[in-house]
Amino acid sequence: MPLTLTARKDTASLPVYLTSGDALEETGASAAACVWARANGFQGAEGAMLTIPGDDGALGGAFFGVGNATFGLGRLARALPKGAWHFAAPPKDPNLASLALKLGSYAFTRYGKKPTPEISFAAPEGADLAAVERQAEGTFLARDLINTPANDMGPEALEEAARRLAEKHGVEIRVTAGEALLSENLPMIHAVGRAGAQAPRLIDMRWGAESAPKVTLVGKGVCFDTGGLDIKPANGMLLMKKDMGGAANVLGLASMIMAAKLPVRLRVLIPAVENAIAGNAFRPGDILTSRKGITVEVGNTDAEGRLVLADALALADEEAPELVIDMATLTGAARVALGPDLPPFYTHNEALAARLSEAAEMVVDPLWRMPLWQPYKDKLRSKVADTNNVTSDGFAGSITAALFLERFVEKASAWAHFDIYGWNPSEKPAAPVGGEAQGIRAIERVLTERYGA
Q1: Fold (topology level) of 133-451
Q2: Residue 356 contacts by C-beta under 8 Å, 6 or more apart in sequence?
Q3: Catalytic positions, please?
Q4: What pLDDT, in 10s, does the model give residues 206-241?
Q5: CATH superfamily of 4-124
Q6: Position 23 confidence tier, pLDDT thresholds 50, 70, 90
């Protein structure tokens, strides 16, 4: 089970001595403990840990090399022996330290993997435990959903996950599925998902006072992406269970917002589909008419995420919300440009961009602003429709995808698009390999500053 944070120190709790180098005596540890550490070659390197024997030979504590990375404390959740622990001296940032411990304790155990050690840890003085718990809960929700394979996380299961969250927080939820998507004017969601074994659907959640500022989250819910008739190679499908990472992230973010009881009118829109191959699959060269009336030539069926997002964004935009945020595992081009750990985001709103960048640094949730470079719009031209869904030259793929989506948002006061990866390809101090929430803690920070009490 994940590490338990406690408000008070247990009487049997053992100390963790934090060091940024080999100045072990400055940590407050006993002289005998420092001698022990040096005899065992411990030099306080970042991420290094050494347990210390007590006077009776039993476990007496631990040294940990924290360096300059407070979030590195997440390693403790997987490295410490089970039991009760506390910091011998307060870390620099009590909230980040507590959150790092909590996030580092995550393990996806549904299919048999062992959980992390059973640890209780006394939160350092000044930590906001309620905030830490809701951020961890939202992050774990996103990680769990992404890590679940497509045989257990199709459109129906994604809907059920949304319904569980809705029931917990008293959310209005409406789902439009199958042929009803056509009568409800959501044709591109229907086109992309109609070849799947489970009917495509739009999940629509609403929470909060109707008079409150409208904040709408849109998440790409492609539960598996074969590439469609423009089929991916085998190795390109290995991680495609994570192609609903945008949906997982907005559900995690929604969980945080509702747990914090932010005074907003929250709406969550998730087009949940499988981009499958069958006789009724949409084809390269098809021309789709979107909800907004914009016609789209399908240049590639493997660029399906932007199609389902376009209909959902158009729907979101119709009520002119104060803020629209969409999140999607949209392009490989974003990974080429910035790698898996640094998601790009796009917005025309300078104030919003500045706050997102500041918040990302403050809460150690990396983001990088990229430009909505208008001259690249010409790359999306079609000779037979209003636009193509892809370019022909392969350049600036993340930017042109954002420019495609931009056409479907006109009335919202502000819009931001996040092209996330949703996956950790290697272990991090506060996260194992696997599904990841990216950007949602930074967004929550911005929303809390803007709308919080």
Answers
A1: Aminopeptidase (3.40.630)
A2: 345, 347, 367, 369, 416, 442, 443, 446
A3: 232, 306
A4: 999 999 999 999 999 999 999 999 999 999 999 999
A5: Leucine Aminopeptidase, subunit E, domain 1 (3.40.220.10)
A6: confident
